[in-house]
């Protein structure tokens, strides 16, 4: 599955679990600010001297860690964990027949269904247990047949509500090794909760058009038909769907033939029968019945609303090309006879990789040249690539259980970039990976409340909870690391062996590790005593990631490296003594070899190592973690930071690779934030940006500086911060300008968007005036829904700036355009921009609309509205107060809107630009009071609280120093 577009431009992390936060609260209430500042300064001094004198740590031993506590700590109520099906009966094939009552006079939002399941008995038993949820089973019609089609008596049927089990008790026992057939007749609700078999609608020619569609991952196939709903229980599926004649139905497989069969008792309806599938998991079954239009390229088709079908052209162009790329990459032909991709107006996730029938929310598949921004185009390519990668990794070979979800998602997230790079090489997506995946997830994984990516899960709430940024981005980052430390050749061969051996079956992460180990040993990339499992377990079973501290000895050309866990909050009480298997790569001013990413040495889960082949004398810089291929940060001694800063300020940035320039910015600013490096050194690194024109380092820098911005924005120091930033950006602003040129490279376009949005937000006069006047042109245009003078790529900047500096007139105008727009990405952008207002009442009204049925904002977009308002300086308090005051309303509206996003997303987006003690207290009080409501959002809320606490502490610790540094920097230049 693919996540909803990451809205979070810059993260505001921090560090605390709910419990510790509450214990500490009292202490801060009684402390005087002055005493605290002194204490903070003292702490900082301790950290710094600890670094300089080089403290030797030992590694924490593996068994001191209680893995299940790690997971459970956030849950206030104990959850059922033994939710697995008995293994005595396994499915072999399904015949599924469904009639959705959604169209015409008799529409009542229900469906009738019948399923015939062939099962194999592996252990003698007299019960058949399968999943069903929200289905009404006609018990009197349930039948069981024996191997010779003899009737087996059903004595009773019972229900285990907590486990969502339907249990059929038989009169005689079912024999091991034999096959039986179960028939169940049922009906269910075509819900509007975007899960299971659900309904969706849209307007066309002033009529409401209805769609019946599915979203099963992870545990909602059981809402559409009774089934053995676990990923490891693969079976063949034959699907039949009834529909009114003028509609069309698609499913995983092609239709058996083109002659359709009438539906008894339903004039004007017909059956579509689909070919029997290959063995597959229930969560990958899918079907869509609609009036959609279609375009195709051979056996590859795209579908959408008639009015949007032209926007599917790009998906149809890159889809088949990426599919071809993956056939080559995995060295296995695409296993199914066809591919359909459908853009749905209501969809909870970003997209879903159902085998042979990928479903998308519209913004993840549709793109209109000249209307949507280029970033939407990239998003389409990325999501299409992600879902296509799953057709092999996930669908052909499936994780046996959800515990390995991280591997499935991490893998698809890594190779989605390879797929896009293959079809759009000028986009530099492999560079962008470093900022968007690694650096992005570093900020989350540096929290105490982060979690290990390989987690035992049972209950559906827990399963839903792990579809989070850590699983996707950290998973992708450590898989990229593996691709580099094993070398591309070994990685690809091992992967291919794994897929070949496990095709149509299920596997665990250890099966992949074993295949890679075997290949690595054959090709002598790892020595015989080392396994991939041993290395990777340190990354998947331990929370967080390391920072390497490098202390060079300039006279003899050596360096000591030690590793400790990196935590963003200097006050974290969590142990830092974890150790990882760290692949170490480095280069120096003498060699400048930024190409070789094979490790020069390993830290084998040991606290320290020494390198001896460095240049002597103190004039050559050293950079570790070449192209940031390793999932770790690096800190250096003061002299090496000076050498690096000097190099960055010299011609051609001293020859330092562009990815490593981004790394130096991100590492140094994060180290400073964590109290491991003096802010004067980190801010000193940023000074070179005066001359930087590449996108990737700027993106890293602006993310890091975005944090400082959000911290200082309400303080007197903001004037100097603005001056410093304006000066830093002067050259790149001039270079990229505010006007688009035809045929510019994608990254130039991105650069302009980033730079302009910063410039406008800092109040750069030309930028603001340009935005307002362009918007006004639009406002006055004759037919604004047809003629929009705002260039597609600059819409985000211009809309937001005009709304921010405007009033109700501008707001209502944009709201009207939102309601009339037919382009999903444009609508998203407008929703985000509407949150930029500084009028409190407008923001409150907007939030209210976001949780009101029929307001014009779709359920799936509710979190976007909250995110937009809370990212706004004027809006964060408004959003937080609204969340507290209107909790019950929000809860009933959001909680059931489709599992994944929902509350967790809301909590995540309510990134408090909380920097004050009072707001922080209000946040913890709120979380405590509503703990029982939070469900799958528990962890997200914990993370939010941690971040807020760290913000509060950060202000106390750093605000003054930074203020002073900025003062000097601004007056000195
Ligand atoms: C069920 O049993 C049949 C006959 O022994 C066998 O061919 C088939 O592979 C089995 N299916 C599963 C899913 O075990
Ligand atoms: C819904 O409508 C269908 C078709 O008219 C009918 O067969 C079914 O019983 C109805 N279901 C309910 C719950 O009313
Ligand atoms: C099995 O028996 C049922 C009724 O007893 C009958 O309807 C069905 O057609 C039979 N199936 C086969 C495969 O013979
Ligand atoms: Zn996915």
Hetero ligands: 2-acetamido-2-deoxy-beta-D-glucopyranose, zinc ion
The percent of residues in helical segments reads 40-55%
Identify the CATH architecture of the domain at 89-229 and 231-388: Sandwich
Global morphology = globular
Helix tally equals 31
What is the distance, rounded to the nearest whole angstrom, between the alpha carbons of the first and last residues? Answer: 50 Å
**Low-confidence spans:** 5-57, 61-77
Classified in CATH, the superfamily of the domain at 89-229 and 231-388 is: tricorn interacting facor f3 domain
CATH class of the domain at 89-229 and 231-388: Mainly Beta
| Quaternary structure type | single chain
Largest sheet: 9 strands, mixed
In what range is the share of β-strand residues? 15-25%
Kindly state the number of beta strands: 31
Helix/strand/pairing category: alpha+beta
What's the CATH topology name of the domain at 89-229 and 231-388?
Immunoglobulin-like
Rg: 29 Å
Mean pLDDT level: 88
Domain ERAP1-like C-terminal: 621-949
Domain Peptidase M1 membrane alanine aminopeptidase: 314-539
Subcellular location: Cell membrane; Membrane
Transmembrane segments: 34-57
